[in-house]
Amino acid sequence: MGLDVVLLTDVDTTNEPTGEDVVAAVDAITDGGAAQLVDFVGSDVTTAYASDLLRAGGDHHVVGYGGHIHVPAQVLISNEVAYRGTIVGRYTELQELMALVAMDAVTLRSERFGFGAITTSPPGSRPGR
User: Fold this and answer.
1) Cα 108 versus chain centre, distance
2) Of 13, 16, 92, 98, which is the most exposed, with the fewest CB atoms less than 10 Å away?
3) What's the structural domain count of the chain?
């Protein structure tokens, strides 16, 4: 799964972190930075953008993993931004999602991988995708 799957949702815009000026693109569509940034990749490339993409008081939600977050403490303090990590979200968010599924308001997409694939990245979840 990649940007093509994301575009099947109600997402208005996606950005390819290696192919465009992401900071300028996000600044243009948010009028000064994102209040909430959900990073489904979590690579060094995507986490490095976060402090430049967020407006003051914004939150960077890291769902994907594989990278590191290197942000000077002064940036966190002066911009009052927060970094949050989650694999599946909060329990209340899971409850809300299940309620939406029960109402047929969302379409779930999943992939199944054999046990032997446990040591490899599933297609579409590799850093940069």
Assistant:
1) 17
2) 92
3) 1
Residue whose structure tokens are 């303090």:
77
> What's the CA gap between 7 and 69, in Å, rounded?
27
Range of the domain at 73: 3-119
- Which contacts (CB < 8 Å, 24+ apart) does range 121-124 have? 121/66, 123/1, 124/1, 124/2, 124/5
Q: First and final CA of the chain: distance in angstroms?
A: 8
Model confidence over 76-106: pLDDT tens digits? Answer: 899 999 988 877 667 787 788 888 888 998 8
CB 64, CB 125: distance < 8 Å = yes
Q: What is the CATH number of the domain that holds 51?
A: 3.40.50.720
Q: What DSSP string runs through 66-81? A: SS-----HHHHHHHT-
Instruction: Please report, for residues 6, 16, 65, 74, 116, the alpha-carbon distance to residue 128 in angstroms, rounded to integers and kept in the order given.
Output: 14, 8, 11, 27, 23
